[in-house]
């Protein structure tokens, strides 16, 4: 992009034409994770020294709403804006190793490119168990509110095994 814009660091500071020109020169990859699993991760990080229940944590997220939610709890659609940004690839947490291997091949990197070790597939069973346990702590009203809170994520991305999809 033109040198005169070199000091601008935020994409939002460009006009639409420049934004398209800049973004057209990159391979855009979006990493997504089931919103309920993201919520669990945010809860686990926030617990620290606090002894609050998952239900209380969820209620706090719901009470704050989407606009005041922490970055970890915000719906992905509001963070990555997939309707405005044309991503070349969307990779799902839970199968990163397989999907990154495919991405490396598609972008033309050498096939022997070393991938880091990913624990996502090994810990997936633990997330399933933990998700079910924590989901059972929520009231029916909270479950419905969460499904509504993350409705755009659930419709934009195919989280087929999400507890919120039911």
From TrEMBL:
This is Carbohydrate sulfotransferase. It is an enzyme of class 2 (transferase). GO terms for cellular component: Golgi membrane. It comes from the Eukaryota. The keyword Disulfide bond does not apply. Belongs to the sulfotransferase 2 family. Keywords: Carbohydrate metabolism, Glycoprotein, Golgi apparatus, Membrane, Signal-anchor, Transferase, Transmembrane, Transmembrane helix. Signal peptide: none annotated. It is a single-pass type II membrane protein. GO terms for molecular function: sulfotransferase activity. It is found in: Golgi apparatus membrane. Its EC number is 2.8.2.-. The keyword Lipid biosynthesis does not apply. Its main location: Golgi. GO terms for biological process: carbohydrate biosynthetic process; dermatan sulfate proteoglycan metabolic process. PANTHER family: CARBOHYDRATE SULFOTRANSFERASE (PTHR12137). The gene is Chst8_2. Coiled coil: none annotated.
């Amino acid at each position: 992009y033109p040198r005169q814009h070199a000091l601008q660091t935020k994409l939002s500071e460009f006009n639409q034409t420049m934004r398209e020109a800049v973004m057209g020169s990159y391979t855009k990859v979006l990493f997504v994770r089931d919103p309920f699993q993201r919520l669990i991760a945010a809860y686990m990080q926030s617990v620290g020294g606090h002894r609050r229940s998952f239900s209380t944590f969820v209620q706090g997220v719901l009470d704050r709403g989407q606009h005041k939610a922490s970055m970890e709890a915000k719906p992905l659609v509001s963070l990555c804006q997939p309707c405005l940004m044309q991503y070349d690839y969307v990779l799902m947490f839970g199968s990163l190793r397989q999907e990154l291997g495919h991405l490396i091949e598609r972008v033309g990197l050498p096939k022997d490119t070393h991938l880091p070790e990913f624990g996502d597939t090994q810990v997936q069973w633990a997330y399933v168990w933990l998700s079910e346990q924590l989901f059972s702590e929520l009231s029916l009203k909270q479950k419905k509110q969460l499904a509504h809170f993350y409705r755009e994520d659930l419709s934009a991305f195919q989280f087929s095994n999400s507890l919120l999809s039911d």
